[in-house]
Amino acid sequence: MGKGGESIPDEEWERFLRDAEAGSPGAPEEPSARARMVTQRLREEPGPPEGWRAHRPARPRRRKGWYAAGLLAVICLLVVVLIPGRVAGWFGVGDGGSPLAAESERPDEPPVREMSVRPPTPEEPFRGSPAARWGDGTSALPLPAARATGWMSKEQVAQALDRTRDFLAASSLDPGVLRGERPVKAIALINPHQRDVQDYLAAAFRTPSRENDPLLLFSRFAEDDVRLVGDVVRTRGRITYREGERGAVEVTTDVTYVYPVVRAASGSDEVARTIVRREVVMSWDDPEKIVIEPGTFSLVSYKADTTNGGCNNHTGYLTPEFTAERAVKGSGDGPEVDPYDRSTSLDARVGESGDAECGRATRS
Fold first, then answer.
1. pTM of the full predicted structure?
2. Pairwise CA distance, residues 200 & 212, whole Å
3. Strands, DSSP E only, in 99-171?
4. Given a cut of 60, is residue 201 above it in pLDDT?
């Protein structure tokens, strides 16, 4: 029907149908009912239409806090990996950390500083010091593998090393000697025919002095003044050997001993620590070339460096100070010394003459 109700001639209607089928440019297009609905909705609603059965994910929220926390976690992990010992000290766990492996060579630097502020106690006498991770007594001083050296067979070298460690125990770890007794077992291992050494030993226990100081070789405390805490002495060091003069087997021991003590008075519980580092070089001589008794050694050299054992002390006993004495005397004006630093030789620490200036310990 045309406008006003007039009918469309048949010829025009047929032409319209032919043009529509042929896709003529002028042919009109009538949108479907759904198309009209969609078009109308597009006009009424801004933004792109949603597809059927499509899932629109929620827009992610920007969480800047998570990024910062992740970065901090990575930094903390790197710190733990690179300096685990120092981190352990920050949280006070260094005292209970795993024991250190035996010292196989001189370290490159001092041990890290423990950050624990808790003082040592009779129950935990090594708390707050590197010795908390050191071994006990001679068990922390493994012997090197024996091999035939100089005049000795492999078996004889092994026996000489065993007796060397026996001397360390008898001179610096024996409970009776630590209480001030004469180190009979240790002296018995020294060549009785080495006259200068025998003269030194006799004078050292009769009239101790700067020249004849028994503390160069032995650790002794005056029983009336202090007593050891428990029965454990922490140690760290090395035992090495080589062929010496006249085919002798020369053994070098470099050991640091840490002694925790309290006052002898009943009820005393303030713990002080005395640290002694000794280097003793001994020669297991060929009896066909040197006058010596079987099973004994000749002393080549001996030196010691002591912290909190008495500065310029020539009493023959180690005399540790406690808080009251340190408050009166002050810290002194000598050079700073880290008694746990084993990265330098003892010669560099005390000097070739052995007359070291009294220093100020950076820790105890």
1. 0.74
2. 6
3. 135-136
4. yes
